[in-house]
Amino acid sequence: PIEMKGSEWVLEVDFVIEAIGQIPDETVDWSAAVKVSEKGLIIADSRTGQTSNRRIYAGGDIVRGPGLVVEAVQDGKLAARAIAEALSNT
What is the C-alpha to C-alpha distance for residues 22 and 87, in angstroms, rounded to an integer? Predict the structure, then answer.
């Protein structure tokens, strides 16, 4: 990577979950915020990534279990489209 001065930007968010690992962190109880499966995976719509909480989207290993990076990237793209559409309808 090459540093490009002046290219940085800030995205203000309410909450960020760092995506590291292939299995759910057993110390985190997601069920307080969204519905989870018996395996502790977050249940999300496969077309949009939207969870049982309309403001939370999820994808990748926390939804599918261990998988490929390309699948997680696709989940992110689908969720981004759904989020953009939801925001444009408000």
Answer: 30
CA–centroid distance for 50 within its chain: 9
Tokens of 60: 């990748």
Average pLDDT over every residue of 64-78: 92
pLDDT above 80: residue 17: no
Task: Tell the burial category of 60 from Cβ atoms under 10 Å away from its Cβ (0-12, 13-18, 19+).
Answer: buried
Residue type, 80: A
Cα–Cα distance, 57 to 48 (Å, whole number): 8
Model pTM score:
0.72
| Total length of the chain | 90
